[in-house]
Amino acid sequence: MSAPTSPAPTAPPLARRRASTTLLATGALLAGAILPVAFQGTAHAATANGGDVIANLFEWNWKSVGQECTTVLGPKGYGAVQVAPPGDSIRLSNGTHPWWDVYQPVGYDLNSRMGTEAQFAAMVTACHNAGVKVYADAVINHTAGANQTSTDSYGGASFNPSTYTYAGIGYDRSSFHDYPATCPNAGNTINDWNSAQQVQECQLVSLSDLYTEKDDVRSKIAGYLNKLEGYGVDGFRVDAAKHIAQADMAAILAKVDDTRWGGRPYVYQEVIPGGSGQLAPSAFEGNGSVLEFTYAHKLKDQFTGNIANLRTFGQSWGLEPSDKSAVMVTNHDLERDNSTLTYKDGSRYVLAHIFELAWGYGTPQVYSGFRFTTNDDSPPADAHGYVTDTDCSSGAWNCTDRDQGIANMVGWHNAAKGQSVANWWDNGNNAIAFSRGSAAWVAINNSGSAVTQTFSTGLAAGTYCDVIHGAPASGGTCSGPAVTVGSSGQATVTVGAGDSVALYGKGTSCTSGCPTTSPAPSPTTSGTVTETFHETKTTVWGQNVYVVGSIPALGNWDPNAAVALSSASYPVWSATVGTPANTRFEYKYIVKDGSGNVTWESGANRVHTAAASGSETLDDTWK
Ligand code: ARE
């Protein structure tokens, strides 16, 4: 089932009303009504995969982002991808293409260093079809530097930064803050970083500061964000949010539509700590979440000190509340100022991401940027500065999101959702282990020598794949090492130096016909479909047939939580289950005998995608 579509237009109209969810769901359009942008373009998958982990693919071009969604992010359970600023930006006249020119917007059309508007649209569609949300880096505090002279851009916008003229958007000198009317300092510099007026009405590093108190400016910014949402964008990293007054941001957001996939966009604001009162990160939480810089800094402190300290890592460390925090190991600024761990830190960098995904605090990001020798280096690009395709094997990019352990920890993170940290263990010397309830367990060794220990894992007895070094494979085996958890939850494990071990899912003593996937992330969708399972199976006295699968309604692959089928029409066994609409799930049938022994049917998982509504019948025969 795909979203309703209409013929693709040349460009989404900027004027639009907030699209109601009902309208989106039914596609019922009133004659003469403005066509909501949400209906335009190509069909998107009907629902997000429900995960929350954000892959921050810093300055990857649109083509590469789309491919990553399809081949890595979706399959691994990433909930979202953060993409570079999508608008047109300045191209410097000196022929250099520093990464930061995209933080100098000059037009709100979407032809940029990362690709054309059509490629942007195709990228969002590809990500949505993989179940992955798209969050755009929204540079809305300012336009290009007033200290710039170039009138060239990547997308062809017409502008002149030195006269504050942006013809394509409709900004002129009156659209910007200026000395002395708003900024008290000649030259529009921020001299006092504790003055909200200066931080918000003067110029951050000479960047022309938009007069966001004006309704016209607010509408133009909101029009840009709505244009992005029209292509399916689901949220925004708000660049330099500290420099936009909260009331102005609230007024802009009030003009921003619900997203195509429903609900408000996820807004996470870049507010670097340092200011107090109105400039503190907490003062921005009325408008959304904040990027957690303290988290990243403290994580580096511990990974270069002793990670045993992380036992209490949380709000008591000065972090913003978990539900307001977009947490990270690093980002594009921090990896350049060396205040956090970076790819240059090797195993510590990987382990910090693994800890971040395991700990469950905030909305986690995994950062994938490009390698650099000097801070201004361009991402890999052609002679004109257009970013070339990401090649993870070239050595030019850091595809952290693909690291086997990190990528598999996304599934671990999703499976642990809602479970508290338990079974903490540390050796006081840079090795830690903990579980998330009974759902998942991890051990992280940040020391220089291997650690062998019998751990309390909190997990049910069974055999588990270590997802850092492999994954469940067909036939119930692991492509890497397996760990046996005993009946009391104990497991004896060796964790290599600078390495980790992670287990999750339902350990099983299953030896044949075992399901071949880890539990899928919980779907988030509205509505249910009535699914009737018909399974033809002859049995002997004492045996009963059950269905078990990848969604909560089918027991999340736990044979103990499988749905019992009725034998009223033997040999056809049947059960009716409410499953989430528009949601793909996998399932198998099992037989239990009177002693509780489980026999799995053979072969691959069965796969079904529930319809948008109504009832369906699945006629199956035991394999
Ligand atoms: C470039 C040139 C400048 C030139 C300017 C305009 O480097 O010399 O004057 O262009 O022509 C990025 C780069 C900048 C670049 C800019 C535009 O980092 O070097 O300027 O793009 O191309 C403060 C802000 C915070 C901001 C940082 C950089 O509060 O929002 O400064 N971070 C975001 C992005 C950056 C980006 C921008 C904003 C601009 O993440 O990548 O800049 O869009 C204390 C304070 C912080 C302060 C921090 C650093 O910690 O508490 O508030 O951060 O110091 O000054």
Task: State the share of residues found in helices, binned by percent.
Answer: 10-25%
Q: What class do helices, strands and sheet pairing give?
A: alpha/beta
Widest beta sheet: strand line-up: 1-2-5-10-11-12-13-14
Can you identify the CATH class of the largest domain? Alpha Beta
Number of helices: 10
Summarize the structure.
Its EC number is 3.2.1.1. The chain has about 625 residues and is of the alpha/beta class. The chain is built from ten helices and 31 strands.
Describe this structure as you would to a colleague.
The chain is an alpha/beta fold. The chain has three domains: 27-415, Glycosidases (TIM Barrel, Alpha-Beta Barrel); 421-504, Immunoglobulin-like; 528-621, Immunoglobulin-like (Sandwich), CATH 2.60.40. Helices cover 17% and strands 24% of the residues. It contains ten helices and 31 strands. The strands form nine sheets. It has an eight-stranded parallel β-barrel with strand order 1-2-5-10-11-12-13-14, surrounded by five helices. Helix 5 crosses helix 6. The radius of gyration is 26 Å and the shape is globular. Bound molecules: acarbose derived pentasaccharide (ARE). Acarbose derived pentasaccharide (ARE) binds next to loops. Acarbose derived pentasaccharide (ARE) binds at residues 100-101, 103-104, 139, 145, 147-148, 193, 204-207, 239-240, 242, 270, 272, 274, 333.
